[in-house]
Amino acid sequence: MKKIMLVAAGLSAVTAFADPYQFVAFNIWGNYFGNPPEERAPQQVAVLKEHQPDFIALQEMTADFWASELIGGLTNRYEAVGRGMGPGGIDAYTPILYRRDRFELVAKGAKWFCPELDRSKGVVWVVVKDRASGANVLSFASHFWWRYD
Prior knowledge:
Mean pLDDT: 84
Distance between the termini: 43 Å
Number of helices: 3
Strand content: 35-45%
Order of helices and strands: EEEHEHHEEEEE
Number of strands: 9
Helix content: 10-25%
């Protein structure tokens, strides 16, 4: 049985599974335009901890957010994929987090659409195995290029 789920800017494909998985796609809006992580990360962590999704696909994860409470407050339960995977070894702007108590990593990867123009636009993906059912789950976080003329 296959199931495709479109969640905001993240697309997740799920193979046969015993229990439903919870996915969250979250554009955190980086630290652009005078809105540093310290002002929003605690509230973002609180919402994510309250709902405890299995997968969290983030967009606009700038360097300041990688160093913030957003990642620090979640890494006790989640594995963050995307660190150092960007062009030139930068941290990806589109990491995906998965619950390490429920899944084990099978494979991971990343691709950037046009790093010469904008290294924040790309995709990070993971394939994990559900420890209980043995099902493989593919999930990815993406942030696409857009242009306004």
